[in-house]
Amino acid sequence: MPKPMDKQGIQRLLGSLNYLRGFIPNISEVTEPLRALLKADTFQRIDVQTDHNPLVSIIKKDLHKSSPRLQRLLLRLFKNEIRRVTDVPEKFLYLADTLSRAYLANEYGELEEEVVMLHTIQIQDEAKDQLTMAYEIDPVRQELRNAILKGWAWGNKTAFPIHQGHLGTQKCIDRACQSLYWPRLASEIKETVARCSIYQRHANQQQQEPLIPHDVPELPWNKVGIDIMDFRNKSYLIVVDFYSYYLEIRLISHKKSEDVVATLKSIFAVYGVPVEVIAENMPFSSYAMRNFASEWEFNINTSSSHYAKSNCMAERYVQTTKQLRKKLVPAVTYMLLF
Fold this sequence. Notes:
By secondary structure, the protein is of the alpha/beta class. The chain is built from 13 helices and 7 strands. It folds into 3 domains: about 5-100, no CATH class; about 160-200, no CATH class; about 225-335, Nucleotidyltransferase, domain 5 (2-Layer Sandwich), CATH 3.30.420.10. It has helices spanning about 5-20, 25-35, 55-60, 70-75, 95-100, 125-135, 140-150, 170-175, 185-195, 195-200, 255-270, 285-295, 310-335; strands at about 45-50, 80-85, 225-230, 235-240, 245-250, 275-280, 300. It starts with 6 loop residues before the first helix and ends with a helix.
């Protein structure tokens, strides 16, 4: 006998049980829940309790906005009028929680998916033939059918303005997903946006990490900062002591590493060889400079690329020296005129 799904099915089951009442002890108590279902208002109003809070809003949504699995669940519930849906903590949902943990094994294998039909309309045969003919000759349908059966024709490429306006990576991916799909869509869009010079030039920069200050040396000339200053078509080598802030300025003819090394040798010969030198990469990371540091036994620490602030001491004294030079030139000119 199939599972009763309506009032007639329950009446048929009760009739069969009533025929066998002589063999069923306490049949009235056993069949009381079934007989209660035959009352007039039984199938009218029910209360739903769940410990899954999202179901409260899902059940209240329109049926067509739910997934097929939820539609099947809601269609079973909609046989009755749902009076109230409440969210109940799991520890108070005694029966449902017990049955979810102690369920019967499925003895029938995988169940077939149900076909949910929400609306049906009756049409005449002539109208049905017209719809079928229009469906067969529809160009979009034919193109889709050929793509499904034969695969996509990648030979004919179509340009879509995915990166128009030079939007960010996620905006481009969202725009592409609205129109088309291809394998590795997200990764290829990320690579394209990363190569866009206009987007990269105007993109928001990541917040810089705070600058880690240099340790103050214990003795003078133990740690010095070095930089090259360009001023009025001339180059100067700036050397500043981290302990005493003493500044040494030397004019150099060229910025080549050989000239820089020769000038530093003359400075170190007067003030001594430091333990550590802080400088920028070029030309202080060259082979000649590294070889000079190895022979004279001092360490060179160069600043990170595109982050000259790490050589803050020398950079600051370059700025100070330029300001002094600008102020001295008008004063000297005034004295000569006087």
